[in-house]
Structure formats: structure tokens, C-alpha cells
């Protein structure tokens, strides 16, 4: 049986919440992501898998810090020491998008050590494992630099170029698939956007129009036994009733509050024989993300209401966000220092954020009713203003007196 790990979207460098760890000098969120990756690697070593397949986005940006590079290298060298080959597909966050510049993972292909395979252009790898051969077709994040574009396409629009890239990659996948040995297990590994995939959290800000898009039917083709994808942060199978499975393993840790309810992890894939691949999702340790939302009640101490809501949650070592709705026409009296004291066991407080209902200014009643005379228009206006209804008659009378005085002055001038 061939067994391998499928993971993606490590995103070392996601340091949007947290602080510097006093013992290591490293940001706590970087330590969280490293902890999750090492959990995955521990599993791979314990199970003595045949290879480790990473489907792109090792870092937050294509220009990682030396610390981030060192930590990723330390993790992957653990696999090398355990004689587990590492297959790396380049993702969009790994690609500098500038012609001639090296991607952030290229160094692993240049290290003079057997066992590292970096896929920066569409290619097929024939890997001999201790349990038999396997074929891996690798498709990195499609860009103009990875897909040859002739001069005749120079004047096309961005949308047309994106469509051309999608069609070109689909053709490349089919071409590589035709050249595979149909009797040997085959995997398609890519960092791609599938039309039916579900974005989560920060990834929802991705604009579909700028991503080359692929139909599930363009990926789930013979003779592939498993499609291992990266890019979308939520674990999902986009071909649940067919073969092969199209799997996004998802990110290994929560990236932002949009992912707070999602489990994170990796997949272990087993192929006992051709056309019999199965996979299992394994959860990694995750930092708790807790969002507490409170609708404050009038006439009750606001700070105590928030404290009562906070105490219903286990906030120890969690990243928390507190939202509270302030009643209309009520002053915000929440004591922030007291809330911070109650949340001392939390790892990080994103914010204690008040929310007030937006007051919509009403249109002037009768402003469009041109058939009304001035006293009627003024009466309708004063009826719409709180506190002026009782003074309406007196105000209208004074307004008419001012109008009469103005008209009299105009007559004298003329």
C-alpha cells in the first residue's frame, strides 16, 4: 500500500494576531503555524509514509524573513532525515510574479540532497517508493511565467489572458495524463482554483475574474487516483460521488476570524492498489478563535453584561474578539480596563468593539407635495421632528409673520 501526506497553505508569516513570545523572540502566530506543521510531520514520520506532498503557499509572501525560512527548512529536514521524499508545488504566495526572480521555495530544489522535488513548471515526476512506483503530475499556480504565451496574445485583455491560461493548463493536464502508465498509481498535484470550491475567511476577498478557473471534470480524469490541491483554506472534496476525489486539504492553522469555525489539518492518502485510493482528514492543533457578541440591554450595567457573556467561554490562550451592541439613545459606559482584566488569560484580544445602529435620516415629509401651501408644509415638517410637535402652532405663526414682514419690505422697495 502506498501512503502519503497531502497538505498545503502553511502560510508562515501570518502574524495578524498575537505578540512576541518572550522565551523565543518569535511571533506567537508563527509558532502556532510551526506547531501545526510539526504535528503533521510527526504523523508522517510515525506512520512511515512513502512521501510528503505539499501543494503550495509555504509563506504569506514571496519574500519570507530569514526566521520563517529557517523554521520551514528545519521542518522539511526532519522529513529528509526520516527518508521521506518531499514533493513541493509552487503556490501563488510563493511566486514573486517577476520574470527572472526565484520563487521562495526554489532553494529546496537546489539543495544538494536527494529527496526534495520542487515543481515550478508543469511536470511529471516518477517516484520510486519503498512500496512501489507512483506518478505525480505537478501543476504550480498558473501565471504568464509558467505558461508560455506567444506574441499574438500581447494585446488581449486581462480577462482574455486569464481564459487563455485556464485553457492552456487544462490542455497540459490532459497531455500529461495521456502519457502516464495506466497501471501505476497516479496523482495530480496543483495549486489551482476550482469553480465549485468554497473560499473562507480572507480568501473570500479573492476575485474570481483574476484567477484561472477549472471545472472539476477537467481535473478528475483518468488515470488519476487522487487530486491534491492547495489554495483554498477549507478542507473539501469537490468530487464526493466520483473517482478520483478532488481534495483541498485546507490550511494547517486558522488564518483569520472568517475561519474560526473551521477545523484545520491535512490528509493521509492510502492507495492499496490502482483505482482504490482513499483519504482521511486529520485535524492539527489549532489556536482557539472566539468571537463574543453581546446585545446590551437597557437599564442594566453594561460592563457586567459583557463580563457575564465572556465567562461563558473558555478564553484561556485564545484569540478573542468582543462585539457589543449599544442600545439606541444610550451612552456607552463599558469599562475597557475591566474587560481587559477579565480577559487576562486570553493570548490576544483583537478588539472590544461597540456597534451602534445606523440612524437613517428621514426625508422631509411633504417635501415632494408641491400642492401644499406654506403652513401645511411647515406643519408636516414640525410633525416629523421629535420635540417640535407641541410648538408647531406657535412656530408656524411666527414663520408666517416673518413672511408677511418680508413681503411688505419688498413692496416698499418696489
Key descriptive features of the protein:
single chain; 414 residues; alpha/beta; six-stranded mixed sheet; 9 helices; 17 strands; elongated
Structure, described:
This protein is α/β, with parallel strands linked by helices and 414 residues long. The chain is 28% helix and 22% strand. The protein contains nine helices and 17 strands. The strands form four sheets. Strands 4-3-2-1-13-14 form a six-stranded mixed β-sheet. A six-stranded mixed β-sheet has the order 5-6-7-10-12-11, covered by helices on one side. The chain has a three-stranded parallel β-sheet with strand order 15-16-17, covered by helices on one side. Helix 1 (28-47) packs parallel to helix 2 (66-81). It is elongated. The N and C termini lie far apart (107 Å).
Distance separating the two termini: 107 Å
**Numbering strands along the chain, what is their spatial order in the largest sheet?**
4-3-2-1-13-14
Number of strands: 17
Strand residue percentage: 15-25%
Form type: elongated
- Report the mean per-residue pLDDT as an integer: 87
Alpha carbon gyration radius: 31 Å
- Extract low-pLDDT stretches: none
- The H-and-E topology, N to C, reads as EHEHEHEEEHEEEHEEEEEEHEHEHH
Category by helix and strand content: alpha/beta
The main β sheet shows up as: 6 strands, mixed
Fraction of residues in H or I helices? 25-40%
Helix count equals: 9
